[in-house]
Amino acid sequence: SLLGNRVPSSLKIFLTALAVIDDLGAIIIIAVFYSTSFDISNLLIALGIFAILILLNRMRIHNLIPYLTGGALMWYFMLHSGIHPTITGVLLAFAIPFAKGGEKSPSYILQHLLHKPVAFFILPLFAIAKTCIPIGDNWHSGLLQTTSLGIIAGLVLGKPLGIWLFSY
To answer: What Rg do the C-alpha atoms of the chain give, in angstroms?
Structure first.
C-alpha cells in the first residue's frame, strides 16, 4: 500500500489474505487450546445473541449501540461458556453492517474509531502482557531466558518459514 502502483495487485491480495488467514488461525488456536470447562447454556445464550445481531443486520439497522451492547453481552456469556471469548470479536465483526463499505457504514465508523487506541495502546500492552516476561530493573537479562528466546525464534524464524511453506 505504501509503495503504490509499484506493487502488483496480486501481491497485495495475497498479503491481505495471508494476514486474515493468519489472524483467524491464531484466534482458532486460542479458542481451542485456551478454553476451559464447557457450559452449553451460556454458549447457547451467546449464540442466541449472535443470531439476534445477524437479524438486526438483515433488518438494515445501522445504529452501532445495539451491536456493541449485544457484543458485550455475547462476550460475557462466551467467557462463561468456557470457550475463549476472542471468538466473540470475530462473530461480532460478521454481524455489524458493512453496507457497501462506504464511510457511513457502521463497520467503517467503528474501525476508524478504534484504530488508534488499539494500534497504539491496547495491542502493545496486550503483546507485552502475553509474553509473561517480567519487566524490572534488569529487564535485558530476561531476553536470554528460554521463554524469550522461544518467542524471538518463533517470530523471527518460525513466522517467515511458516509463511514460505504455506505459500509454497
So the answer is: 19
Q: Please, which residues have CB within 8 angstroms of residue 133's CB and are 6 or more apart in sequence?
A: 142, 145, 147, 148
Alpha carbon distances (Å) from 48 to 71, 73, 93, 108 = 12, 11, 16, 25
3-state helix, strand, coil in the chain (%, to 5): 75, 0, 25
Cell numbers at 131, concatenated: 509474553
Q: Which residue has the cell 457504514?
A: 105
Would you state the cell numbers that stand for residue 5, as one nine-digit string? 502502483
Cell of 144: 536470554
Total-model pTM: 0.66
DSSP notation for 75-121: HHHHHHHTS-THHHHHHHHHHS--TTS-TTSHHHHHHHHHHHHIIII
For the cut 70, the answer to whether the pLDDT of residue 66 exceeds it is yes
Tell me, what DSSP letter sits at residue 133? Answer: -
Q: Residue 6 carries which DSSP code?
A: G
Q: Give the tens place of pLDDT for each residue, 74-128.
A: 999 999 998 888 889 889 989 999 877 778 888 888 988 998 998 899 888 888 8
Residue type, 91: L
Angle, alpha carbons 158-163-166 (nearest 5°): 120
Q: How far apart are CA 97 and CA 63, in angstroms?
A: 9
